[in-house]
């Protein structure tokens, strides 16, 4: 599928999606959000894809936010529709049955920070900057930032970022637990690919169930969440990968997972 604002590459079971509007620092307009939706629906349906890397074009930005020029004159109904479209994209990424790694190569602000938050794992170049600057524009985050940020880094730390609109650098993001790892910018995509390849070599069904158990379990009470985990654990025993993984261990050889 061809996109106006995205580049998509697939190799060795890893899809790399690049938001490609560098002249606007990859800001998310309605067309780009629609393309992200179509792109991730396609990746979900493509059994050859076992992990996804999401990044931004150019050396300056991952995504510098929702497109301010496109938002400025919206009325409340249109603003809500725009926010809901963003939520659809974030939800799709968060619940994709494959792991999604954000490779944050510069500014990740507002909707860009929210896009990174919807991913499973975040790697950052040491030039990355994170922030939720919406209060500087007289609005609040609209693509899940008030919800995913406190769930990831805690309520107090999230509120400081949300109330001040301040930007933080990659080192501070690492300290807060907002990113998993910081690397030199030139090594960012390779580091993300190494991680993606490592995960892609595991049983894809088990990885998908792990993701579902973490995401859904965190929304439940502990006893219900543990039951949810037990049911997902049991489901693994209906797969060839469980037999292969345990046989391989006992036969002292590497497992060869099929994803079934
Ligand atoms: N939207 C539209 N255009 C943008 C955006 C953006 N978010 N960010 C940068 N651009 C454009 C600039 O306008 C500029 O365009 P031009 O060359 O035509 O003037 C170009 O990108 C380059 O930007 P700068 O010249 O500003 O580059 P600097 O290096 O000087 O500054 C910054 C880089 C600090 C990243 C600066 O561009 C900036 O502050 N950008 C805005 C960041 C921001 O406020 N993001 C949050 C937006 S709000 C949001 O995301 C809410 C999400 C929920 C929406 C809910 C829907 C209702």
UniProtKB/TrEMBL annotation:
Gene3D superfamilies per the UniProt record, alphabetical: 2-enoyl-CoA Hydratase, Chain A, domain 1, Lyase 2-enoyl-coa Hydratase, Chain A, domain 2
Listed SUPFAM superfamilies: ClpP/crotonase (SSF52096)
GO MF entries: hydro-lyase activity
Presence of the UniProt keyword Lyase in the record: yes
Source species: Desulfuromonas soudanensis
InterPro entries: ClpP/crotonase-like_dom_sf (IPR029045), Enoyl-CoA_hyd/isom_CS (IPR018376), Enoyl-CoA_hydra/iso (IPR001753), Enoyl-CoA_hydra_C (IPR014748)
This protein's name: Enoyl-CoA hydratase/carnithine racemase
Domain of life according to the entry: Bacteria
């Amino acid at each position: 599928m061809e996109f106006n604002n995205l580049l998509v590459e697939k190799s060795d079971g890893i899809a790399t999606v690049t938001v490609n509007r560098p002249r606007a620092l990859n800001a998310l307009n309605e067309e780009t959000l629609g393309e992200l939706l179509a792109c991730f629906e396609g990746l979900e349906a493509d059994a050859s894809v076992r992990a996804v890397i999401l990044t931004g074009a150019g050396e300056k930005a991952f995504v510098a936010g929702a497109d301010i020029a496109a938002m400025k004159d919206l009325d409340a109904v249109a603003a809500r529709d725009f926010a809901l479209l963003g939520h659809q994209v974030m939800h799709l990424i968060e619940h994709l049955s494959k792991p999604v790694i954000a490779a944050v190569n510069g500014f990740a602000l507002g909707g860009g920070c929210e896009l990174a938050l919807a991913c499973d794992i975040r790697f950052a170049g040491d030039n990355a900057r994170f922030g939720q600057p919406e209060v500087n524009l007289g609005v609040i985050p609209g693509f899940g930032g008030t919800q995913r940020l406190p769930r990831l880094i805690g309520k107090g730390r999230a509120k400081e970022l949300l109330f001040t609109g301040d930007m933080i650098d990659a080192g501070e993001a690492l300290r807060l637990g907002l990113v998993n790892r910081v690397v030199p910018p030139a090594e960012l995509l390779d580091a993300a690919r190494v991680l993606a390849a490592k995960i892609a070599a595991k049983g894809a069904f088990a990885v998908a169930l792990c993701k579902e158990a973490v995401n859904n379990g965190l929304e439940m009470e502990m006893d219900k969440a543990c039951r949810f985990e037990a049911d997902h654990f049991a489901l693994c025993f209906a797969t060839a990968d469980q037999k292969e993984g345990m046989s391989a261990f006992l036969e002292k050889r590497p497992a060869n997972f099929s994803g079934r």
